[in-house]
Amino acid sequence: MRKDFLRFTHMIAKLIVLILTSTLVFFSCNSSQENGKEGASNTSEIDQRVLNAWEQSGDLVQKITLSSKGVVRNQAWGISIDSLQEKLELAENQPASGKSYTLYFDDSDLNFTDISYLGDDQQKLTEIDFDIFVETKSQVEELKAKFTTYLQVKFGAYKTEGTKIIWEKDKNTMVILQDVSTVKDPGIKLVFLRKN
To answer: What is the DSSP string of the chain?
Structure first.
């Protein structure tokens, strides 16, 4: 009788350990799934805010940046410059380490941007430069304001140094926006730099 009681107690103890272990595993898996969902929803919430800001930035900003995905124009740091999928014509002048394209905003030769993809010594993308030219100084001011609003949502708070507006809160990317207008050529320089 005592052996049966000990065997029964031993079985109950094993059953309790099994139930506790199963419960702990269940709750830890469930918790990590919820954290994953929360992380994913935070990421998608941020992506949605960036997309909304991009959609409100206006036709010209949208044409220049192409989409809200990637660093800019759907590009990611470290890709091979030879793998770029731009559907634009190559610019007249090409950089020593990279490729440059020209995007015309209309049928005139006055409104356009040269987009330069620059790389390191392995031809991996480390910098994207936009030399943007428009017809009037007021267009520059309007475009600068729209870029600032959009980039603030995408890259966080900015600081001002002289004529430069700089975003450096993002751990991977620094952005510099500058009015480089001359009397004859109103324009903006916009630079995206890989930080690490």
So the answer is: -HHHHHHHHHHHHHHHHHHHHHHHHHHHHHHHHHHHHHHHHHHHHHHHHHHHHHHTS-HHHHHHH--SSTTTTT--TT-BGGG----SEEPSS--TTEEEEEEESSSSSSSEEEEEEEE-TT-BEEEEEEEEE-S-HHHHHHHHHHHHHHHHHHH--EEEETTEEEE--SSSEEEEEEE---SS--EEEEEEEE--
164, β-bridge pairs: 161, 178
Q: What residues does 119 pair with on adjacent strands?
A: 125
pLDDT digits (tens, 9 = 90+) for 48-84: 999 999 999 999 999 999 999 999 999 999 999 999 9
Mean pLDDT calculated for residue range 27-48: 58
> 61-70 as b/e, with b when 16 or more CB fall inside 10 Å?
bbebbbebee
